[in-house]
Design a protein that fits this description.
mainly beta, 7-stranded mixed β-sheet, 4-stranded antiparallel β-sheet, 56% strand, globular
């Protein structure tokens, strides 16, 4: 019904940047918001950022505020997460979510010191 595919993860040094993409397909008409979450080994999944499809309002976790930027391209049904000034503690599998109901398979982000 809904498919989310993340891409853009990889290995980067501390202070570097990455841009994650999440392409949505299927019943995307029902989407009211898209979000990024992350989960490090042995830890719970945590909220990173979200954006509303219609108004474009954004929300960020305090830990990434000022460093990460979430954006959307409605025509492409795609959301992005621009990650700057990456820190080792940002290392995790990053997941894209639609309405907090549907999830992608995740993309690994590893930040070396």
């Amino acid at each position: 019904q809904v498919q989310l595919v993340e891409s853009g993860g990889g290995l980067v040094q501390a202070g570097g940047s990455l841009r994650l993409s999440c392409a949505a397909s299927g019943r995307t008409f029902s989407a009211y918001a898209m979000g990024w979450f992350r989960q490090a080994p042995g830890k719970e999944r945590e909220f990173v950022a979200s954006i509303r499809w219609s108004g474009g309002s954004t929300y960020y976790a305090d830990s990434v505020k000022g460093r990460f930027t979430i954006s959307r391209d409605n025509a492409k049904n795609t959301v992005y997460l621009q990650m700057n000034s990456l820190k080792p503690e940002d290392t995790a599998v990053y997941y894209c979510s639609m309405n907090y109901d549907y999830w992608g398979q995740g993309t690994q982000v590893t930040v070396s010191s």
